[in-house]
Specification:
Largest sheet: 5 strands, parallel
Strand order of the largest sheet: 2-1-3-6-7
CATH superfamily of the largest domain: Response regulator
CATH architecture of the largest domain: 3-Layer(aba) Sandwich
Oligomer: single chain
Distance between the termini: 39 Å
Number of domains: 2
Length: 255
C-alpha cells in the first residue's frame, strides 16, 4: 500500500495520542511528520513537512482551522480529515472535495476505510503519472457508436444504470447515454471523486446531495432512491451520525 506522511492540527494531546496509537498499530506505512497546536504555525509547518494526509480539529482555540488549511492547500496538495463533536460546523466544508469529516467519538472502522481509500488514490496517482497529483481525471468518457463524449466529472450529479449501459445526469439537467459501459465500470473509476453506490441502479456524487429522506435522496433536484441496507453507508459517506432521519445540507441547515 502507498506510504503516506501524516500531520495533525490539534491541541488535544489525549486525542492525538489515541489516533496516533491506532495509526501505528493499523498502518505500517504512515509516518507522522508534524503536530501543529496553534493557528500561527499551520502554514510554516505544513509546507515544510509536505504531508499527504492531514488530521485536523475543525476548530482550534475557538477559531475555524479551514481558512488556514485552505491557504496551504493552494501551495501543496493533500487530503484532509476534519474531526469534530459539533455537526453544525461540518456544513461550511461539506462540499470541499479534498476534505472528509468524522464526528467524535471516532468510528475507527470509518476512519480505516477513509485512510485506505486515500492510500489507494495516492497509489493510483503514482501508477498513472509517475508522480504525486491530486486530480487523476478531469473528464468522464462516454463512448457512443459514432463518437466519444467527454463530460467534466465535477458536473456529473449521478449516474443511472440501464442494463449494460449508463445514463449520466449533469448539473445542467443534461442526460448522456452510453451502451458500452455499465454502472460498475464507472463506480470503479469515480469512487475517489465522491461517487458512491446508493442503489443497484444509481451511483451518486455526494457533493450534490441536498436532502436525505427515508427512501430517497435529492440530488440536484431529482429524487434518487436508495436501498434501506445502504442507508448507513450513505450516512457514513456524508459523515453524519445515523441517528438522524432527515438531514438538509445548506448553510441554514436545521437538524
Amino acid at each position: 500500500m502507498c506510504e503516506l506522511r501524516l500531520a495533525f492540527i490539534d491541541n488535544d494531546i489525549c486525542f492525538i495520542n489515541q489516533i496516533s496509537n491506532y495509526i501505528k498499530n493499523s498502518f505500517e506505512n504512515i509516518k507522522i511528520v508534524a503536530v501543529v497546536s496553534n493557528l500561527q504555525e499551520i502554514e510554516a509547518k505544513i509546507i515544510s513537512t509536505a504531508p499527504q494526509l492531514l488530521f485536523s480539529n475543525i476548530t482550534l482555540d475557538n477559531f475555524a482551522t479551514f481558512p488556514y488549511i485552505e491557504k496551504v492547500q493552494s501551495v501543496i496538495k493533500f487530503h484532509a480529515i476534519f474531526f469534530t463533536e459539533c455537526i453544525d460546523l461540518i456544513f461550511r466544508t461539506l462540499n470541499v472535495r479534498w476534505i472528509n469529516h468524522i464526528v467524535k467519538p471516532v468510528d475507527y472502522c470509518h476512519l480505516h476505510k477513509l485512510i485506505s481509500k486515500i492510500q489507494q488514490r495516492e497509489l493510483l496517482n503514482k501508477n498513472l503519472y509517475g508522480m504525486e497529483k491530486s486530480d487523476i481525471i478531469d473528464f468522464m468518457v462516454l463512448p457512443k457508436k459514432d463518437k466519444i463524449l467527454f463530460i467534466k466529472i465535477k458536473e456529473v450529479c449521478y449516474l443511472k444504470g440501464m442494463g449494460k449501459g449508463t445514463i449520466a445526469h449533469t448539473v445542467h439537467g443534461d442526460r448522456y447515454i452510453t451502451n458500452q459501459y455499465n454502472l460498475k465500470f464507472y463506480q470503479n473509476i469515480l469512487w475517489h471523486y465522491g461517487f458512491f453506490r446508493v442503489h443497484n441502479s444509481y451511483l451518486v456524487n455526494k457533493f450534490f446531495i441536498s436532502q436525505l429522506k427515508n427512501s430517497y435522496c435529492v440530488v440536484n433536484g431529482d429524487k434518487v432512491p436508495f436501498s434501506r441496507r445502504r442507508r448507513k453507508d450513505i450516512l457514513n459517506e456524508i459523515s453524519l451520525p445515523s441517528k438522524f432521519d432527515y438531514v438538509i445540507f445548506n448553510k441554514d441547515a436545521t437538524i
